[in-house]
Amino acid sequence: MKAMWGLGRALGAMLVVGLLLAACTSGPVRRVSEPSARLQQLSVRADGSWSAEVRIENFSSIPMRFDSLDLTLQFGDELAGHLLAQPAISIGPESADVVTIDLKPAAAAKFAVADALAGGRSIAYSLEGRIDVTPDEAKQRSFDIKRTSALSPAPGLPGVLR
């Protein structure tokens, strides 16, 4: 009986050691998730051009390099233009960064934004397009982006929507 008890304890100890070794071999989960982009701020310059601050969010569990973005910007039904950039920035896991893009807006969108600023009202916008990223130690991937939101005049900052 003592021999069986000793054998059971030895098998139990071996099982525990095996489980511990198996737990050590599995590293952190490397998950690539769809990134997001949104307008963080839009500044209207004196010459009528715009400065768009685009917030890029990396929801992955690994760092990703954001190689390029091509997004169509609309205010309501008015096409403002294309936000094109090749930031080539690396964003850490579950983090974000901001890219500033200059834009010469279409006349109708320029008037819609000017009207919202003059009236102190928010204005709806949409972004649609593509972001190309390279996950850490992997090949480049493209993600489709589609976002709708709104910007409001920033108090005390003339010509700025946030």
TrEMBL record:
Source organism, top-level taxon: Bacteria
Organism the protein comes from: Lysobacter niastensis
SUPFAM superfamilies associated with the record: LEA14-like
Position of the signal peptide: none
Domain Late embryogenesis abundant protein LEA-2 subgroup: from-to ranges: 54-135
Name under which the protein is recorded: Late embryogenesis abundant protein LEA-2 subgroup domain-containing protein
